[in-house]
Amino acid sequence: MPVSPVPPSGGPLPVRYSVETRWLHWLTAVMVLVQFAFGETWGFMPRGTVVRVGMIMTHTSVGVLLAATFLTRIVWAVTGGRAIRFPVRTPLDHVARMVHWLLYVMLGAEIVLGYMLRWSRGRPVVAFGVPINSPFADMGVGVQRVFGECHHWLAWGLIVVAAFHAMAAIYHAVICHDGVLQRMMPPRRQAG
């Protein structure tokens, strides 16, 4: 009978999420960071410049990809998607589960607000040169400002909650040595 390797903590080996789940997670994380970086920096570029327009167009295109990835994640989660179901035993388990749900709700709302910000002007969302026409007429500057402010501040909230999520994963890896972070990482290659 082969002996299973044991991590340095002496505990059980981490159970990994499926490759698809890990790809969806990291793809979402990268796109959220790109979206935030572009959304927070294009204001420093002069209006009408190629760089600023390019950043806005990239933000919109990546936003559509993010929406598609988010919907794929929802379908994947609802259909089972070879997800790992962990028992909720401690108050921290409850907090972790609530934070995951909060991230889903915040990201979904942020995506909707992005579309509504653009559509409230009566303009299409243009992704990779393809327009997604607005189902609404121009809603006026007041409504546009509300969508813009909500989109901006929810982005900051999402980044803060995601940062806590990342810090918790690092805490599990560095302090607890319990394999939580490894669940979302690819397996290490064996030497030789």
Automatic annotation (TrEMBL):
Keywords: Cell membrane, Electron transport, Heme, Iron, Membrane, Metal-binding, Transmembrane, Transmembrane helix, Transport
Topology class, membrane: Multi-pass membrane protein
Boundaries of every Cytochrome b561 bacterial/Ni-hydrogenase domain copy: 16-186
Principal location class: membrane
GO biological process, one term: respiratory electron transport chain
This protein's GO CC annotations: plasma membrane
Origin: domain of life: Bacteria
UniProt subcellular location: Cell membrane
Cofactor dependence: heme b
UniProt-listed InterPro entries: Cyt_b561_bac/Ni-Hgenase, Cytochrome_b561_oxidase, Di-haem_cyt_TM
Residue intervals passing through the bilayer: 23-44, 56-78, 98-117, 153-175
GO molecular function: electron transfer activity; heme binding; metal ion binding
PANTHER family referenced in this protein's UniProt entry, alphabetically: CYTOCHROME B561, CYTOCHROME B561 HOMOLOG 2
Family, similarity comment: Belongs to the cytochrome b561 family.
The name this protein goes by in its record: Cytochrome B
UniProt source species: Gluconacetobacter entanii
Lineage: Bacteria, Pseudomonadati, Pseudomonadota, Alphaproteobacteria, Acetobacterales
